[in-house]
Structure formats: structure tokens, C-alpha cells
Design goal:
alpha/beta; Metallo-beta-lactamase, Chain A; 24% strand; globular
Length: 273
């Protein structure tokens, strides 16, 4: 009976620890390229769209890509790798396959279409059928280190693209990454989530999604503490950084790959720590 009590208690602590409102550890974001980031939420590390290989958009440097592939710190322990969709500026099948072989403990979360492009050896025994959602549908993946809501949103004019948005909660923090979805095009789908139950720390959106409708969704629905702008063409970071700040009072723009910023809970006076 004593052994059962100990196991039961440990199980409760693991479940509670995933979504607890304990922000003692920092929220850290490292920019990789385009819409690719590494996010560290307490002891949980997540890569999102971090292995692109595109002719037209920003790619990670060879050095940064090699560090990710080979698990060189800070990429030595990645809990989750999230892919929004299989366009080359977000995902490269050959690189992703090699990454999974080198990081067997990493859990990949991606669409059915994305997973179908992976090399067979990289997914052997992993049972990765991929996420298959209709437009506006969502599902929750509960793990030992994070709770992740996957929501399919519209990818611009191409409704056939399975663009997955992610709401990730871990260590008391919540981040939202919407891939190539414009908020203004997806209001009805976004409303399927109970945003009042979230305290969103970071919202990652495309830098050109700046309509009045998008501002309303940010201010009245999602209500993030910070907005991270992404998909910025190389060399235009300063121009985006100095653009109209009406989108959100705490807008963040990253510069070069490998740049890291620390975030924390936003106080009532608007400061962050």
C-alpha cells in the first residue's frame, strides 16, 4: 500500500507540474530563421519550424543547423519539435529525418502530410501517423512536459495546406504559434478555443498581419503579453522594428539566427521580468 501511495503521489505531481502557474523559471526564446524558434519554458524545450531550407526565405546558418542536428547545447535536449506545415521555408524532410535519428527522445508533432515525407528509418517504431484535422478542428496532446493544443487554421488562399497552429502550456507559461495563418482570416476558427482559460505570454504571428481585424483579435481575444513578429525578409528587421507599434505595445522583432531573448511574467505596470 505504501508503494502504491508513493507512485500515485508522483503521478499527481507530474500531471500538475505540466500546467501549474509557477513562473519561477524564465521563458527563453532563441531565433533560428524565418518562423523557426527554440522556446524554453522552464525545463521544457521546444523547436518550432526550425529546420527550413528555402530558396526565397531566411534559412538557419550552416553552423546553427549543425548544432541542432548534432545536439550541441542549447539543442542537446529537445522535448518537442513542432512543424506548422510542409512548405520549404518551414520544413525540410531530409534535415528533419536526420534530426529525429539523432534525437530519438524528441516527440515530433506535425500534420499527416508532413510526416508522410519523412525518411522511413527516422520514424521506425515512433508511430508517427501525423495530425489529421479538418479546417477549424483542434485536438489536445497531453504529455509529461507540456499540454499542446493543435488547431488547423487557413493558410491564406490555399485552403488545401494543412497549416497547424499550436498553443503550448508548460511550467506556467503559454505560447501560441500560428504558422502562416493570418489571424484576420481565421477569427471563426480561433473562437473555437476558450481563450479566457489561457494566460498567453507570447503570440508568434507574421509581421505583415497588421489589419484592424487582427489588432482586435490580439487585444480582445488572445490578449498576449508579447507579440513576436516572424517571416521577416533578411535585412528588413530594422524597418519592421521601427514600424507602426499600434499592433501591440510589446512587440518583439529578432535579428540574426541564434539571438536569444528572455521573457517573464508581465507586471501590472506593463513591465516584464
Amino acid at each position: 500500500m505504501a508503494r502504491f501511495s508513493v507512485v500515485f503521489l508522483v503521478g499527481i505531481l507530474l500531471v500538475v507540474g505540466c500546467g501549474q502557474d509557477d513562473k519561477k523559471s524564465a521563458l527563453e526564446v532563441t531565433y533560428v530563421a524565418n518562423e523557426g524558434f527554440m522556446v524554453t519554458m522552464g525545463s521544457t524545450t521546444i523547436l518550432i519550424d526550425a529546420l527550413p531550407k528555402s530558396k526565397y526565405y531566411v534559412n538557419p546558418s550552416e553552423t546553427l543547423a549543425a548544432r541542432m542536428m548534432n545536439g550541441i547545447p542549447p539543442f542537446d535536449r529537445v522535448d518537442y519539435f513542432l512543424v506548422t506545415h510542409n512548405h520549404p521555408d518551414h520544413f525540410n524532410a531530409e534535415m528533419m529525418s536526420r534530426f529525429l535519428l539523432n534525437h530519438p527522445a524528441t516527440q515530433l508533432i506535425a500534420s499527416l502530410e508532413t510526416c508522410s515525407e519523412l525518411n522511413g528509418d527516422s520514424i521506425a517504431g515512433k508511430r508517427l501517423p501525423g495530425i489529421d484535422l479538418k479546417m477549424g478542428q483542434h485536438q489536445t496532446i497531453r504529455g509529461g512536459r507540456a499540454d499542446i493544443v493543435v488547431l488547423r487554421l487557413s493558410h491564406g488562399a490555399n485552403a488545401g495546406i494543412s497549416n497547424l497552429a499550436y498553443v503550448v502550456r508548460s511550467s506556467g507559461y503559454t505560447i501560441v504559434h500560428v504558422g502562416d495563418a493570418r489571424l484576420s482570416d481565421n477569427e471563426e476558427h480561433l473562437r473555437t478555443l476558450d481563450w479566457k482559460s489561457y494566460d498567453v505570454d507570447l503570440l508568434f504571428i507574421e509581421y505583415f498581419d497588421r489589419s484592424d481585424e487582427t489588432r482586435d483579435i490580439i487585444e480582445k481575444m488572445i490578449k498576449p503579453n508579447h507579440v513576436v513578429l516572424m517571416h521577416i525578409p533578411a535585412g528588413e528587421e530594422d524597418g519592421v522594428r521601427n514600424a507602426d507599434e499600434k499592433l501591440h505595445p510589446r512587440t518583439v522583432v529578432f535579428g540574426t539566427g541564434g539571438e536569444t531573448k528572455m521573457f517573464g511574467k508581465v507586471a501590472e505596470d506593463g513591465s516584464s521580468h
